Here is the input.
Amino acid sequence: MANQTMTQPQTTCLTRLPRGTRARVERADLPSEERKLLAAMGIAVESVLKVRRAGRQCVVEVDSMRVALAGPIARCLHVTPLAG
Here is the structure.
């Protein structure tokens, strides 16, 4: 039987995704208080979001709500891009 290698999407920081990309949050390298604030806005591990604006200020959509994130915060969010 041939050994088949399946390619898995690679985790990257949120700021590297282009506009329109859907992604799942894998981890947030932030202090606990900042993670709690993001969770209150619907951005937590396992959340699915869509990039609406990329760049220094990243805007994402999560649960039909748009959230603007400062670059230093967005760079700490590690996500896996999703197909579609």
Q: What stands out?
A: The chain has a mean pLDDT of 90.
